[in-house]
Amino acid sequence: VILVVIALLFTFRSELIEQDFESEMNSIIVPHQLMPVKQYFDSCLDDVVNEGIMVLGEQGGYIEIPDDIAPRFDNNVYSNSLELYGDSEVAYWFYESANGIEKEQIPTKEDMELQLEDYVSRNFDRCFYFVDNFEEEGFEIEVPTADATVDVMINRNEVQVKVLSDVLVSLKDVNKILDKHMIVVDSKLGELYEIALKIMKEENKEMFLEEKTIDMMVAYDAIPF
């Protein structure tokens, strides 16, 4: 009963946070004359966030994979990550170090949120590269000099992103500081993370990968036991 109550409380809390975010996002009022600029920044932010989510998914929940104590070399070819191609690699959640010590490096959801916040903060200024196009239409845009402040929440089926960055936009006698940029990105990242944790837990409990490997080695003489 206690576990059920706790689960319900977390679910209810998560729904309240999602509702609060959407309410705050819907409360942003922008004059219709300046809407093209707002829509541009929202679209650009969406692209940046999706890029970060893609990297998180491809690299095992890391945008920056932690440095291994022992760098990759002949006797440590696997290190703490798997090299795929080029600079692409995937962090191991469980691995054996070069000195034979078993280690885990499973990112928490909070870790992923912080890494995505840092990625968006470092790449949001790309959205300022093409603001000159709006000036041809009569807009005046003053971009901020300070780095953007980013807040990310990874939910089960979406990622909420809020960026604080003062952008002064003017068109004739209409002007407004776009200081808050908020979007919701449809993403299964949170759900996939939960599934990955369950697979990891089940593998550590049942060792089904090891069992299948031994079965294959016993069944086929060509594989040295």
What is the N-to-C order of secondary-structure elements (H for helix, E for strand)? HHEEEEHHEEEEHH
If you compute it from the alpha carbons, what radius of gyration comes out, rounded to the nearest whole angstrom?
23 Å
General form: elongated
H/I helix tally: 6
Query: Which range does the strand content fall in?
Result: 15-25%
- Which spans have pLDDT < 50 for at least 5 consecutive residues? none
What is the structural class? alpha+beta
Please tell me the overall pLDDT.
Answer: 88
Count all strands and give the number: 8
Largest sheet: 4 strands, antiparallel
Termini Cα gap:
48 Å
Percent range of helical residues: 40-55%
Which key phrases capture this entry?
225 residues, elongated, alpha+beta, 6 helices, single chain, four-stranded antiparallel beta sheet
What's the short version?
With 225 residues, the chain is of the alpha+beta class.
Could you characterize what this model shows?
There is one protein chain. It contains 6 helices and 8 strands. The chain has helices at residues 2-26, 35-58, 109-123, 132-135, 189-206, 208-219; strands at residues 81-85, 88-91, 94-96, 102-104, 139-142, 149-154, 158-171, 174-186. Strands 5, 6, 7 and 8 form a 4-stranded antiparallel beta sheet that branches. Helix 2 packs across helix 3 (109-123). The model has no long low-confidence stretch (mean pLDDT 88).
